[in-house]
Structures are given as C-alpha cells and as structure tokens.
Design goal:
The complex is a heterodimer of chains A (about 525) and B (about 180). By secondary structure, chain A is an alpha/beta fold. Chain A is built from twelve helices and 17 strands. The longest helix of chain A is centred in the last third of the chain and has 20 residues, at about 420-440. The chains are: A alpha/beta (about 525), B mainly alpha (about 180).
C-alpha cells in the first residue's frame, strides 16, 4: 500500500469507500494515479460479519447522530435513523442486496418524458443511456451481474417461488431471479452463493460484490492506493483561487490532520456528501462549496419504497437464501393511466425475526401484530422500489444546535412525500397484495418504508450550472477539481436500485479525471 | 375482579402441572423465580407491584399464548436493569405503573383484558409506553431462546447456508420454469 505525505498535493483524495468511492479509487489506481481513500468507518473483513441482525447493525451501520423532519413516517418511528447505510470500509456495498438494473432510457429524460409535474423539481440528466451503455457493460462485467456476460441467473428460493406463482397468476410477464451482483457460480476469485441469507449483514461467502473485497484490494495491489480507515472528513479546504486544495479529517483518536490534494472526490452517500460541502463553508463560499445554485442538499430522494408481507397456510421460510431473490419488472414503465408518472419494481425481500418485529409496523403492538409474527415461518415478502419525485424542500441541512463527536453540525434530513409518490406506493401496495392473494395469502401487511437505503440526488448533475451541483461527469460546476462520486449526483431517482449506476458513473468519471489530469486542466 | 387477580397470580404460580413462576418479595427485595426452567432474577429497582404490572403489560402488548411467562419476565428484568442504570428511567417506569393504576382507578392488572387494552391505548404515545414496548420488541423477538418457537433458524453460515438445506424446498406451489429460476450450479 502506498504511503502519501500530508503535504503531498499530487494525489486524488476520495472521501468514502463504497460503490462510488471504492470503484473510483480502483479505476484511478489502475491508470497509475495516486489515490488516498478516506473512510470514516472501520476496516472489517468477511470473517467479522455476523449472521445476526442487531449485532451486525451495530457493526456496520452509520449510527452517528442525525435528525429528521417532514411527513414521512420514518421521522416519527426512527427520528434519528433516516437512513440504513453503512460506516465501514466498503460502505453500503457491505449491506446492499445486489440488485443491478440499468436505468431506462426514458428515465434519464424525466422532464422531457413526464412533462411538468407540480411541486416536482424535475430536469433531464445531462447524459443519456447511450452515453452510459459502454460503462454499464464494464460495471456489469466487473461486478459479475447475473443474466449479463453469459452469467446464469441465481436459483430462486422459497420467497421467490411465492412471488413467482402469484405474479404469473396475475398475468405478469417479466418475473425472474433478477440481475444480481451475486455469483451464481465461482467467478473472479469469489465463490458462488451458498444461499446463506443475511445479504444485508455482510456476505459471508464473498459471492456478493462489495468494494471491500474486490475494488479496494485490487487498488491496493497497484501500489497507488493509501486507504485510511476510521478517518472522518470534516471539511474540504480551498485555496485563494477557489480551487480545492485538500481536506481536514479526524483520525480514530480524534486528532485532526490536513491532507493536501490535487483533486477531491466526495462519495460519502447522499446525506454525508452534501453535509460535508455545507460544513466546508468559507468566506469565499459562504453557502458551502459548489453551492452557487443553492441545490446542495436539495432534491433528496429515497425511492418510493414500502413492503408487502403476507402469511400463508403452509411454511415459506422466506429468510432462507438470498434476501432479494427475484423481481417483477412489469410495472417499471411510465404509464400515467395508473395515476402517476414513472414506474416501480417489485423485488422479494425478507427480514429476520428481530428486524421483522422492528419494521413490519413500527410502533405497533397488540394481538394482530403478535399473530403476524406468530406466523413468521409462513410469511413471504416483497419490497417496492419506485421513482420518487425530486422536490427542492426535501433536503439535507445542517442542524442549528446539535453537534457530532467532532463538533460538526449534524445533518437534518427533511422529507415529505410527493402526491405522485403516494399514488405510486398505493398502486404498488395493491399489486403486491394481489400477487400474494393469487398465491393464497391468509393475511397481507402493507409495511411502510424502512429508513432509507437508496439515498439520492442531493448534489445532482445538470446541464445548467443554475439547476444543479455538478456536470455529467460529476465535476462540480463551481470548482473544477471537486467531484461528486456517489448517488448524490443522480438527477432523478428512476425505478432501479442505484448501485449499478453509481459504479457505472464512477468508471466513467475515472476516465474523465484521467483525461483532464493528462491535459493539465485539473 | 378480585378473582381475576387471584387467577392471574395462580397462573403465574401454577401454570400447568408444575410451579411455573413466582414473584417473591422479601424485606423489600423482589425476585422473579421460575423454578421449572432454572431461571430467576433479582430486581433492584422495581417493587413487587410494579414488576407484576409490567409483566402483565408486556404480555398484553405482545400476546403469544404458547410463550411462557418466563420470557416476559426477561423483559421485566431488562427494564429493571435500565432503571438501575438510570434514575430517570426508574422514575419513568414507576410513574408509568402509577399512571396505569390511576386510569384504572385501582389495580390496572385486575381489570378485564378489554379494559386494560383501553387504558394502554390512552397512554400509547407516552415515553413510558414506548420504553416498555421497544424493550419488548428486542426482549421477545431478539431472544434466541424463542426463535425456534417462531420458526426462525438464525445464523446459517456455520451450517453451509441453505444451498443444500431447503432454500427452495417449498412444495405447495408450482416450481418456476428454469428460464425464470435456473438450477443451482
């Protein structure tokens, strides 16, 4: 591993080691570019992961204080846990379920395709599917996505069998075990899936792609990477010309260090990334870095999620095998006859008993709830992933009084559902219910959205500098050597799980950064 | 009402054939004792009435007929531990029990199940209620000794996952075609 001096200003500093940051680090290192990769969390290994929900949550989740506001139920049930994302080397790629779907062509042109929608801050992405296709192909190969590159699909588990039977009775066409970055057979030195379950708790077989044991060690092997874990970045610094010059971070002992940099890439997920830019305000940039548009922290999206769980006469054992074992893709189209713009996916999901008790109906008690859990063994479940509308008022801001362990203002996450979000969720609840009823459900539960796992949009890309924070390469409009490298650059949310697109954008961004460095533009 | 109270105590003391559990109060110290299971716990903050009320409350919140009182007593013990560690928590628990009794105009535990439920609904937004409720969620459903009861198998990696242990053994619905669900490699 490289060792780079605090005063060395030649390296690219990347903040965050998840899907965006971890991938970008490897791509740059492979091109011979020196990288310092800073991660706030600890460096765990596969051996540390546990098949036990609460202890795993304590091990991997980002638990630094956050606050919430808005009409979303998360603000009531989990006021200090707006998001279920990770603080660990590998970031949320340790926790993600593995679904790897390309965003559809029309979704990149949301404003054009959906037209004006009241109270939605819709614009088109500054790029098209055609621009991304070669990079999607590279990402799918890198991650080993099933049903691409000749890789067979995964075998469906019991939870999928229930979904499939109901979906087919209902007439759905595109129902299969999905495109998953989980090895259905050994590939790239990683094992095939053992159907362990506990995908959310860190994959014990390494069959699921995570930057922790793919991109990051590959980057280290080049000799160009210095990974600094337990290093929490507090501020991005700039020089008198307004270009970024380095970052200030706290190490595991709380000691602060100034690390110089040629380029800074922010990939701390859609809550921490805008928070960092806002916390970096200076006399030159009083509203925070890269915020001349005022859009930093705004347009926070989280997908129109929700779950449907159902109980059956006979056992299901939904928790056996992959957590996200299959998909119904028929509803991912844009078809306003359903009463909303955009579309959604239905994907199987299971929770272990401890988390089912916490999330099935947060705050609920009484006989109906207990009876549902009494039927846990007979339960099947699915998750709704749909496009939610970007709204300026849905935003990450700095808390006026609350400070974290480093004395930095904590983020507040405000979210109100858009009426399009509600219409879509209600449609999806109904369809999910029909699927399970077609398979013979006894009772059906419409479960409200969990703390967000798909956090998007708070430093969005835009063609015009007045509409967003960065351009189509994630380069901020205001500061040419400052980049956004995570899901916060998404212009709109689309209906697909975001990780594949985050990885795709990181591969493309690495090419752009290398080219711009070569031209001495940055 | 007095009979229900006696029955409740009798159930606690004599569930089925054997002595299931008792709340023992002697010179101020309260113990929860379940001789048949070998489980007992000494409480440090809650008194006899408070511990019995909370035991009844936990079962009322998450009723599972086939789960023994012992497992609800584990939640009461956990609440007592919290109360022991934090005086504000202790005050909140004691005040909460007092409030239940006040709303019951007597002993809340002695009311009918319906009346107990009505009173719980009145206080379900209080910090006391949420404290007890959230302790139940982890105390009952995250108790590994109860997972078998719920049909949850817990950690699987040490058994090689489910690839050869029934991840796809559901046989009461048609199997999907291989195009939708390929065979395992």
């Amino acid at each position: 591993m490289a060792k780079i001096d605090f005063n060395d200003n030649s390296a690219v500093v990347i903040i965050g080691s998840g899907a965006g940051g971890g991938t970008l680090a490897n791509e740059l290192c492979q091109k011979g570019i020196k990288v310092i990769l800073l991660e706030a969390g600890k460096h765990h290994s596969i051996a540390d992961f546990v098949n036990d929900e609460w202890p795993s949550f304590s091990q991997l989740a980002w638990l630094d204080k956050r606050t919430t506001s808005g009409d979303w139920r998360v603000a009531k049930d989990f006021p200090n846990l707006p998001a279920w994302i990770c603080k660990t080397v590998g970031g949320t790629t340790t926790h993600w379920a593995g679904a790897s779907l390309r965003i559809q062509d029309h979704e990149f042109r949301a404003e054009t395709h959906y037209g004006k929608i009241d109270d939605a801050n819709l614009i088109d992405w500054p790029l098209t599917l055609k621009d991304l296709e070669p990079y999607y192909a590279k990402a799918e190969d890198k991650m080993g996505v099933t049903r691409t590159n000749g890789i067979p699909g995964l075998p469906g588990n019991n939870n999928f069998k229930v979904m499939h039977a109901g979906a087919k009775k209902l007439g759905y066409k595109e129902v299969h075990t999905g495109r998953m970055a989980i090895n259905s057979r050994p590939r790239n030195g990683r094992a095939a899936c053992q159907q362990i379950g506990f995908c959310f708790q860190g994959c014990k077989s390494g069959a699921k792609w995570s930057t922790l044991y793919t991109e990051i060690p590959a980057a280290e092997a080049t000799g160009n990477l210095e990974l600094r874990s337990e290093s929490h970045v507090l501020q991005v610094k700039h020089d008198t010309d307004g270009k970024v010059s380095g970052i200030l971070y706290a190490d595991k002992n709380g000691n602060q260090h100034l690390q110089k940099a040629r380029i800074v890439c922010v990939a701390g997920n859609s809550i921490e990334s805008p928070r960092l830019l806002l916390n970096s305000a200076s006399s030159m940039y009083p509203d925070g870095l890269a915020n001349s548009s005022g859009q930093v922290g705004r347009n926070y999206m989280r997908h129109t999620t929700g779950s449907v769980y159902a109980t059956f006469e006979k056992p299901v054992h939904m928790y056996r095998g992959t957590t996200m074992a299959g998909i119904i893709a028929d509803e991912n189209r844009h078809d306003t006859s359903r009463g909303f713009a955009g579309g959604y996916e239905l994907e199987t999901l299971s929770l272990g008993l401890p988390f089912m008790a916490a999330f099935l109906d947060p705050g609920a008690s009484g006989k109906k709830f207990s009876d549902a859990l009494e039927d846990y063994e007979h339960m099947a479940g699915m998750w709704i992933v749909g496009e939610d509308m970007p709204q300026e008022k849905n935003r990450v801001t700095l808390h006026k009084t609350e400070k974290d362990q480093h004395g930095q203002p904590v983020p507040n996450v405000h979210f109100d559902d858009h009426k399009n979000d509600i219409a879509m969720r209600n449609h999806a609840y109904k369809q999910g219910t029909l699927v399970y009823e077609a398979a013979g459900a006894k009772t059906v539960w419409e479960t409200p959205p969990y703390p967000s796992t798909h956090n998007l949009g708070t430093n969005r890309m835009s063609t015009k500098a007045s509409d967003g924070v960065c351009n189509g390469f994630g380069q901020t409009h205001d500061i040419k050597n400052l980049f956004i490298s995570d899901g916060s650059q998404f212009t709109t949310g689309a209906a697909e799980n975001p990780t594949l697109t985050i990885v795709t954008l990181a591969i493309r961004q690495a090419d752009y950064i290398a080219e711009q460095m070569g031209k001495k533009n940055i | 009402m007095e009979n229900e109270h006696l029955n409740r105590r009798k159930f606690l003391c004599n569930s089925g054939k054997t002595l299931a559990g008792v709340i023992v109060a002697s010179s101020g110290a309260v113990s929860l004792v379940f001789p048949a299971t070998g489980w007992s716990a000494q409480l440090t903050v809650l008194n006899e009435h408070e511990s019995e009320t909370l035991l009844n409350m936990t079962r009322q919140l998450y009723p599972h007929d086939k789960i023994a009182d012992k497992f609800y007593a584990v939640v009461v013990k956990a609440l007592d531990d919290d109360a022991s560690a934090n005086t504000d928590t202790a005050k909140q628990l004691k005040a909460g029990v007092a409030e239940l009794d006040k709303l019951a105009q007597g002993n809340w535990s002695e009311l009918s199940a319906d009346k107990r439920e009505t009173i719980l609904k009145k206080i379900d937004s209080t910090a006391f209620f949420q404290q007890v409720r959230s302790k139940c969620v982890t105390g009952i459903y995250n108790n590994k000794d109860l997972w078998d009861h719920f049909g949850y198998e817990g950690s699987s990696v040490e058994h090689g996952g489910y690839i050869n242990r029934g991840f796809d053994d559901l046989d009461w619905l048609p199997n999907p075609p291989e195009s939708d669900s390929p065979k395992a490699h």
